[in-house]
Amino acid sequence: MSVEELHARIAAIDNEIDSQKKLLAKLENDKSSIQRQLNAVLDPMARLPLEISSEIFLQSIAWPQHAPTSLLQICNAWADIALATPALWTTVHIHFPCSDHFAKVLPIWFERARSRPLSISMSLSGLASNWNHRVSDVVWSHGGHLKHLEILDSDDPTDDGFAFDDESQKMDLFGNATSVSLPLLQTLTIRCQHRREFRASQICQLLCAAPNVVEFISDKVWTGNDPAPENLVVPTLRRVIFGETSSDDEIFAYLTLPALEALSLPMRYISGSELLACVERSAAPLQDLALGWKFGMIESVQLHSCLRLIPTLTRFKIWRPSVQVVTELFVALVDSPSLLPNLRDLTIHLYHADRDPPNLSESSWRTLIRALSTRRVERLYIVPILVSPPMDVLASLRDLVANGAEMHIGTEELNFVVI
C-alpha cells in the first residue's frame, strides 16, 4: 500500500475507535442508569414514600455529626432523599479547633435546611484562642434561623498551664461580628465540664439579641470581672438554671425577669439582698425555685422575705442548708399560713459533715407536720437523715402517702416513711 493509503487506513481506524468509544460510553451510561433503576427497585428505602424514608433518615441525627453527609455517599436514591429532607440539616455540631474550610461548608449545610429553625452546638477544646471566629461569624450571620444554641467545652483549659485569670482563657464569642440578631432563639445553654471564663457582657448581648428566649442554662461558667449592664430586662425568659455548685451566678443580679417561672441559683456570688431585689423588681409568677446554701450568701430572714414575695411557688428546693436554717423555715411556715400557700413539692438536701451528720430534733419534725397540715404538699424529700423521725411523725407522713403523696425521709437508699 502506498503512503497515502496507509494514512487513510489509520484515519479510518481512528474514526472507528472514536465511534466505538462513544458507543462504549453510551452503553456504560445506559448500564449505570439501568443499574440505578434496579437498585431503586430492590432498595426498600427507595420504594418507601418520601415521608417515611425521610423520617427514617431523621433518626440519623443521633449518629455522629457527619451522618447527613455520609448519607449522600451511599447511592443517588439515598442522596436524593437526604437532600429532600430539610429537617435532617437543622442540627449542627461544631468542634473547635477547626479549619477555616468549615466556614465555607456551613452555608451549604444551612441552605439544605431551607430556612428551617436551626439547633447549633459549638464545643471548644483547649485554649480560648482555638475558637475560630471565621466559623462562628458564619453562625451569627445565620442567627435569624437559630432556635437552640449550646456552647460547651470538652476539656479543662487549665491543663495547658493557664490560670482562670489569664487573658488566653477569656472567651470572645463574637470576634469580627459587629451585631448579632437571634429573633427565633428559644434556648441558650452555656455548659462546661470545667470552669471556663466567658464575658458577662457578651452573655447579656446574646440575651438582648434574642427577643423570644425562654430558657437560659449556665453550668460551670465563670464570668470573671467583666461587668454586665446595670439592668437588663428580658421579658420572655421563663427558665434560668445555674449549676448547683460551681457556676458564677453574679450575672443574675443584673437581670429583671417578669415572666420567670423556674429559677435555680447556687448563691455563689448573689447575696440574699440581691436575690430579694431581683425577685421584687421582677414580680414574676415564679413556680419552681432552687437555692444553694454552700456559700452562705443568704440568711433565713432574707429567705423568708423572698418567699413571701412568691405566693405562686409550687416547688421549692434547697441544698446544703444547716439544720438551723431548715428548722427556722418550718417555724416560718407554721407561723405564716400565707407563706408558700401553693407549695406542692419540698426538697431539702441538708449539709452533711462526716463528723457531724445532720439530725432534726423531734420538735422540728412535729413543726414540719403542722406546716404540712395547712398545705397540700404532694412530694416531700429530705436527705440525708440518719435517725428516724418520731413514730407519731411517721404515722402522719404515712397517712399523707396513703392519700397519694410521695414522701422520702432518710438517705438516698433508705426511706424511713415506707419501711
Automatic annotation (TrEMBL):
Residues 3-37 form a coiled coil. InterPro entries: LRR_dom_sf. This is F-box domain-containing protein. It comes from Mycena sanguinolenta. Keywords: Coiled coil.
